[in-house]
Design a protein that fits this description.
This protein is α+β, with helices and mostly antiparallel strands and about 220 residues long. About 50% of the residues lie in helices and about 10% in strands. It contains nine helices and four strands.
């Protein structure tokens, strides 16, 4: 993984098509390593989350090429590799597992990020009735050791259709139900990356199981 970080670092310093084309072989070698890593994670995750069975790594990996048509940032390439492992692949509405590789900004995480109105309402309706189960998972000692905080992306008031004094209004206000944990460069290039990430995904699987029930 050292060469992957090196490629991404050099890309961040030379984010243009000419450099990328001259270094396409390094890109392809790095992408192949991410495909291999994603395949390992899929095979491990399906042992505790059968919903990911049957998907391929290429269903999960995000393109490095940016769509700059409607963006002020016209740099053509992302400076990271990312894979979202979930039923249906990277564009899935279902909860999943995310690995983000970027020099000094890598992290592992997952859940459901910014769902559309209908799935978000389904999660909130289920959460309104089953919040203690969710909170038990979130506040478990082993879970919090890896994911100490939930991503803080909330409404300022109660969502439509829910009373402001609802017992669990604090978790109903969330617009995303995701967790993440930073991974330093030393871990990325070390021997423990796979074991650490699988351990994190196994804990996250408890949240994803809850969210999956809400969506189905």
């Amino acid at each position: 993984m050292k060469k992957v970080l090196q490629f991404l670092q050099e890309l961040s310093e030379n984010n243009n098509r000419e450099w990328f084309n001259d270094n396409r072989k390094s890109y392809e070698e790095s992408r192949d390593k991410i495909i291999f890593l994603t395949d390992v994670f899929i095979n491990e995750i399906k042992k505790f989350d059968p919903e990911v069975a049957g998907i391929s790594p290429k269903d999960c990996i995000f393109r490095i090429f940016k769509d700059v048509r409607f963006s002020k940032d016209k740099l053509p390439y992302k400076t990271n590799f990312g894979s979202f492992i979930a039923k249906g692949g990277r564009k899935s509405i279902y909860p999943g597992y995310y690995i983000h590789i970027e020099p000094n900004q890598s992290f592992v995480g997952g859940g459901v990020y910014m769902p559309q109105a209908e799935p978000l309402r389904a999660i909130r309706m289920y959460m309104a009735e089953h919040a203690p189960e969710f909170l038990d998972i979130k506040d478990d000692e082993n879970f919090k050791r890896i994911f100490p905080e939930m991503y803080d992306h909330q409404l300022k008031t109660a969502p439509k259709g829910f009373p402001k004094d609802h017992e669990f209004i604090s978790v109903l206000k969330y617009k995303s139900y995701i967790f993440s944990s930073a991974i330093d460069n030393k871990t990325i290039i070390g021997d423990g990356l796979i074991d650490y990430t699988i351990e994190a995904f196994r804990e996250l699987g408890k949240v994803n199981s809850f969210l999956y029930k809400a969506l189905t």
